[in-house]
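Re: weekly structure request thread

Next one in the queue (171 aa):
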Amino acid sequence: MFDTVSGLPLHVLVVHLAVVVVPAAAIASVLVAVRRPWLLRAGWWVVGLDAVAALTTFVAKESGEKLLARLDRLTEGQRAAAVQTHVDRGADMLWYTLGLFGITLVLLLVARHRAAATFRPRTIPPIVVPIVAVLTVVAAVFAVVQVVRVGESGSKAVWHDTVENSLAAPR
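Done, posted below.
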């Protein structure tokens, strides 16, 4: 299911979507974390975008595993250290996006509860919203840093030798 599309590795196609969606979701999460009116108006959209980021990351991870299995068959399982670094970082990326999704969802639920607290007894202390907002910003920063690390390690694994060899003096 996560192997190829029209004969091309799905991983190569979907990682570009993750590179765009994860930072967009992180930026949107930060914006609603620092602007409470935006959180109450657009919070569900941002949580939805975070879910899309997590889903995109999941598809990138699964398709990467299929591509790796295909390449391992071609190279008899001789995995380069650069590829292994990319695999390890890519496996961790899913947790970063799930964390961003989860903490943004908690932020939205806490803020909505606090906003509705005028109609019922307040059960969540006022300090909770800023604390969860800070955690959301931290999760967003971590997600963006990790997506950069994953992409950089993947690019190095695929292109480093090619670029380095192309810079050699012509014969």
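Residues 85 and 118 are 51 Å apart (CA to CA). The mean pLDDT is 89.
Next request, please.
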